[in-house]
Structure formats: C-alpha cells, structure tokens
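Posted in: Structural Biology > Protein-Ligand Complexes

Title: Requesting predicted complex, uridine-diphosphate-N-acetylglucosamine in pocket

I'd be grateful if someone could produce the 3D structure tokens for the following input. Sequence and ligand are given below.
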Amino acid sequence: MPMKILTILGTRPSFIKAAPISRTLAATDDVEEVLVHTGQHYSQNMDAIFFTELGLPKPAYHLDINNLAHGPMVGRMLEAISKIIEDESPNWMLVFGDTNSTLAGALAARLNHIPLAHVEAGLRSFDESMPEEVNRKMTDQMSRVLFCPTPKAIDNLDAEGFNANEKTIVLTGDVMLDAARLFTPQARRPEGLEYTDKSTFVLATIHRAENTDDPDRLIGIFTALETISRETQVVLPLHPRTQTRLDAAAYDFSSSPIRFIEPVGYLEMIWLLKSCTMLLTDGGGLQKEAFFFDRPCVTLRDSSEWTELFESGVNILAGYAPADIIAAYETMRDKTLTFGQKLYGDGHACEHIIKTLFDV
Ligand code: UD1
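-- Reply #1 --
Done. Output follows.
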C-alpha cells in the first residue's frame, strides 16, 4: 500500500507552499497525495489561478467553507475534514502555515488520531491578537512532525519546551524558496500594468485583519501610501478584504494617486517583486519573497515571525502610524543593503520534508 498523505489547502499562500511539495510527491514512488481544499479562498484570482499556474492537481475534495468568523469557519471545516479522514484513512495529514484552514486540519487530524505534519512550524510573532499566531501555536502543539523553515523557529520550539523525544523537529529550509526557485523563469507582468525600462515603483500589499478592520487605522495606512505615491508610484494589488473595508470607509478610489490593480497570481507577483524598488506589506510570506528577490521591505505591523530579516537589516518594522510608515520608507530608500545571506535554506525544503515523512 502506498503511503497516503491528506494535504489541507485553503488560502492563497497555502497553494504556493503546496505546489512544489505536490509536484515532488507526484514524482515519488509509493506515495499517494489526496488534496483537500477547504474553500477559504474562492475568488478566481485568489484561488483558481493558482491551480492553473502552479500545476496543482484538482483537489479530491472541495469543501466551499468561507466568509465566516474564525470559530464557525474552523468548526465547519473540522466536521467536514473529520468525515474525509474516516473515508480515506490517511497515514499522514499535512498542513501549511497559520490560517484557519491549517488549524481546522490540525484539529481534525489530532481528534481522529492521524499523525500531523506541520510545514512552517515554530514561527512566532508573540502577538496573540493576531488569529495567525493562535492558529500556528495550536497547530504546533498538535503536530507529530514539525518542519521548521529557520533555526529561529527551532529555538522558539525549544523555548516552549517542545520535546524532541516525543516529536520530530526538522530544519528543512523554507518551501517558499523552493517555489520561488521553481517558478521564477515563468514570471510575467500583470496585464494592464503599463511599464517601460525606465519605470520605477514601490509594491504595496495590505490585507491583515489588524490593519483593515479598524477604519481609522486603515485610512491612516492609505494616507501614508498616498504620500509615498506622490514621490514614486505605488502599485497595490487589492485584496478583497481590504477592498470591502475601504468601500465601507468611503475611501475615494477615483482621486487616489495609488495605482490599484486586481489581486495577482503567483507568476505576476514574482514579476512585481523582481521589478519593484521596495515592498511595503503587512503580509507574512511576502516579507521573505522580497528578500528572495533582493528587495528591501517595510513591514506594516508591530511584530513579525520572520525576525532574521530585521536582524540582517533588509526589512524594518514600521507599525501602522502614518508618520512611522513614511519614516520607515525613507530609511529603507536611503539605505545601502547587502543581500545574499542564506536565511531560508537551500531551496530544497520539499525533499527534506518528503524524506522525513517516509523515515519517521
Ligand atoms: C487569510 C489568512 C492570512 C493570510 C491570507 C492570505 C486566516 C486567519 N488568515 O486571511 O493569514 O495571509 O489569508 O490572503 O486564515 N475574500 C474574497 N475572496 C476570496 C478570499 C477572501 O472575497 O477568495 C474576502 C471575503 O470577504 C472574506 C475576507 O476576504 O470574508 C477575508 O478572507 P479570510 O479568508 O477570512 O481571511 P484573509 O484576510 O484572506
């Protein structure tokens, strides 16, 4: 019988993380991967485009659970994934990152006695007001195997008393570096974005709940981005959550100097990262992707789980106050940076992950 892995996906970043693993699994003997898509992300450009572009196989199960608060979303996913476990009897459950879909998969595995493997384990922002911090800590607790992208992630688990006799903790490097390595040759400019060899722009993305749910904070952030836009073009692919919140706050898109574009697929995002002068973001994975493409980053948060980026000076935590965002932008604009450190492994995290699943 081949080893059966039930992989839980649901959000845009998990599609990117899963792509290199699924591709490597498909080329590996004696293993069967069953993909479960929770449906947390569902719009064409937040979901389907990633499957087409990244060659992800069509999920065996699609749960279509979305647009719910944290608790009800996780609860409904838990029920549905538990049923799938009953039908499939997998040898492993594989989950990625820190989203609601991750936590639901982890709970389903644990409650149904399926060993759980967590990709991107051990990360901490130490800010429990973020749903992602709660999701990742609980998922780590329930995991049998913890795949850590960085030495810092291992240190975090040590500090929390994780016992290497009971759990397998492995430093794998980052699967997002595998994905960047694999897909960079196919990077392409987003349609409709006018660009010449002389164009320069700053790339910005804002979508985290803590920045979008409070209208004053949200508008403050966009005021700062507008100020920066008057000096250099700011290109911003607009996440649906942010669009909804800006609409509710009566943001005046028509007179904004920011260049808003639709959410982009992964290949277009790589092009934007390679072509921008700097990234301003509150995303998680994007902070690392800026580093993969040697771009400075300003992080619009009070904390981040990718602390090695701040220590190496290529990223700066700005918080969310307009004056602080502008000051951080100017600091990074005027700074000479060196890239090239190997902070996230060798781009072969997938192989380490799959080998471990066979060995444990
Ligand atoms: C989720 C993750 C976050 C990750 C982000 C990537 C959690 C707690 N957060 O946040 O860590 O960085 O995904 O994008 O899981 N929406 C659509 N179409 C979609 C997806 C979302 O319209 O395809 C809208 C819906 O109105 C939805 C809202 O965005 O209610 C928020 O989506 P949700 O999946 O709850 O969280 P994200 O903000 O995307």
